[in-house]
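fyi for ur records
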Amino acid sequence: MHIRKKDKVIVLAGKNKGKTGEVLKIFPDKKTAVVAKVNFVKRHTKATQSDPGGIKEKEAPLPISRLMLVCPKCDKPTRPKWEILPDGKKSRLCRKCGEMVV
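which gave:
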């Protein structure tokens, strides 16, 4: 998967097109991700002893195909390039500047 938790991403399509945010959670089986401050939905919650209830907004998952990684160094949207390091681990590289994406 080309996107990981805490990555900065940009939304490519839909009502949130052009918005950027940090990935909070990923659901690999559904191929979706929750991005901070993007794709808000309203949920009607029932009142409990600790919570008054009412209409609350929260972030909903977005399909990963609608997200693109933003390079932390050059701050441009990029498709990561995969490279195998000498110790056998895979790392992601920015295709624009060649810098390693952590």
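The beta strands are 8-11, 20-27, 32-35, 40-45, 54-59, 62-63, 67-69, 81-84, 90-93, 100-101. thats all i got for now
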